[in-house]
Amino acid sequence: MDIGTRFTAFGKSVVMVLIQLGGLGVMTFSVFLFLFLGRGLGVRQRWIVTESFTATPIREIPRLIRSIFAFTFLVEGTGAVLLYLHWHGRLPAGEAVFAAVFHAIAAFCNAGFSFFETSFVAWKGSVLLNTTIMALIVVGGLGFPVIYELIGWTRNRRLHRRTAISLHSRMVLWTTAILVVGGTIVIFLLEGTGAMAALGWKERFFTALFQSVTARTAGFNTLDIPALRGATLFILVMLMFVGASPGSCGGGIKTTSVATMAAILSSKIRGRESVSIFRRTIPEETVSRALAIFILAVLVVTAGLIMLLVAEIGPGNPGRTGFLAYAFEAISAFGTVGLSMGITAGLSTAGKFVIIALMFLGRVGLLTVAYVVTRREHVTYFRYAEEKVMIG
After folding, report:
1. Helix axes 93-108, 9-32, angle to 10 degrees
2. What is the phi/psi pair of residue 99, to 5°?
3. Measured between alpha carbons, how far is residue 321 from residues 226, 317, 328, 341 in Å?
4. Listed residue (329, 125, 366) closest to 223, CA to CA
5. Which pTM does this prediction carry?
6. Are 367 and 246 in contact (CB under 8 A)?
7. What are the pLDDT tens digits along the chain (392 aa)?
8. 331/229 Cα distance (integer angstroms)
9. I need a labelling partner for 313 at 20 to 30 A (CA). Which of 164, 193, 251, 306 fits?
10. Long-range contacts of 114-118 (CB under 8 A, 24+ apart)
C-alpha cells in the first residue's frame, strides 16, 4: 500500500508515532515492565534482560534506558535536520519538515516506511540523502549496548584510560562491516550491467551501498526491486535473513548469531574443541543459543514459505509469480525489512496473514529462544551409550 497517497497527514503521523514507540519499545518495554511495573526480576528474567543488553549489569539498566532515549532523539533530530536540507526547495516547507522527521525516525528505527511511492528511487544520486539515511540505518541497527560501550570507550580514550572493547561489540562491528562492504561489491558487480547500467559511477556506488545497507532491516530502496537479477535478489535475501544486531531496532537472526556460526565452522574445520573468535572463547551456552536461533529461523521461514505457497498457488490459482518472489516476500517479512518484489498488495487474505505471522515471529519469536533454552535443566545421573553416526 502506498501510504503517501492512501493515508492522510493524521494517518502518517500515527504511523510515525507507532514506528517510534516500536523502535524504543522493543528494547525498553520489557525492562520497564519488569523493573518498574512488575514485582522485580527473577533469576531467569534477569539473565534474559542482561543478555538482551549485552550482559549489562542489572544495576545499570535504568541508566542505559535513559541513555537510549536521549541518544535516540539526538540522532533522529540530527538526521531530520540533514534530511530537511535535502528536501528544502524540492518540497513545500511544511511537507519538507514532516518528510524529514518521518524518514529520520523510520530509518533509525529500521522501519523502512516511506510515503514516497517509489521510496528514494528519484534521489539515488543525492549524496546527502543517501549518506544520512544509511548512517541512521547503521547506527539504529548496531544496537544500543554497542553504541553505549563505544561512547564510554571514546570518553575513556580522551581521558587516556586504557579500556578494551568487548567481544560482543567487536563481533557486531566486524560482521556489520563485512556484510555492508561485501553486499556493496556484489550488488555493484551484478547490477553494473543490469539495473544500474544507465547510472554514472558515483550513482552506481551509492546505489549499491545504499541497497546493501538497507536490505538488512530497513526496507528503503533506490532500485526497482523486481528489475534486479535473480542473483542480486538472492544476495538481498541472505542480507535480510541476517538482519541487524542484538538490542537494536532491526530483525533477522542477528549479526552475532552469524558470527558465532562462522566461528563454529572455523573451529570445527581446524579441529578445535572450543569455539573461539578474536582470541576469545565463546561459552558453550552461547554456541547452543546461536545454533538454536539459526535452526529455529530456518524452520519458521520454511514453514511460512510453504504456507504462503499453499495460500497463493492452488488448483484455482496456478500462480503467475515465480518461487523466488514468494521466498523474497517471506524472508523480508521474517526479517521485518519491508522490501518487496511488488506482490504484497496482490496476496490473498490468507497470504497476508502468513506475512503478518512471519513479521511477528521474526521480531519477537526469536527473543523467546533465550527463555526456552535456559529453562530449568533436569539433573540426570546417567548418560546413554555413545554410538557413531555417518555424517556427510
Report:
1. 30
2. -60, -40
3. 11, 11, 12, 10
4. 125
5. 0.84
6. no
7. 566 667 788 888 898 888 888 777 655 655 555 555 544 555 555 555 555 555 455 566 666 677 777 888 899 999 999 999 999 888 888 889 999 999 999 999 888 788 787 788 888 878 899 999 999 999 988 888 888 888 888 888 887 777 788 888 899 999 999 999 999 999 999 998 888 988 888 889 889 999 999 998 888 888 888 889 999 999 999 999 998 888 777 788 899 999 999 999 998 888 888 898 988 899 888 888 889 889 989 999 999 999 999 988 766 555 556 788 999 999 999 988 888 888 888 888 999 999 999 988 887 756 555 555 555 555 666 778 888 787 76
8. 17
9. 251
10. 114/4, 114/220, 115/2, 115/3, 115/4, 115/7, 115/12, 116/4, 117/2, 117/4, 117/5, 118/224
CA angle 215, 221, 223 (to 5 degrees): 110
Q: Which of 189, 326, 182 is nearest to 255 (CA)?
A: 182
Amino acid letter at 312? E
C-alpha cell at 314: 492452488
Give bridge partners of residue 277 from the DSSP assignment: 280
Contact 250, 140 (CB under 8 A): yes
Angle between helices 167-191 and 144-158 (to 10 degrees): 110
Sign, CA dihedral 100-102-103-105, equals: positive
Helix, strand, or coil here: 88? strand
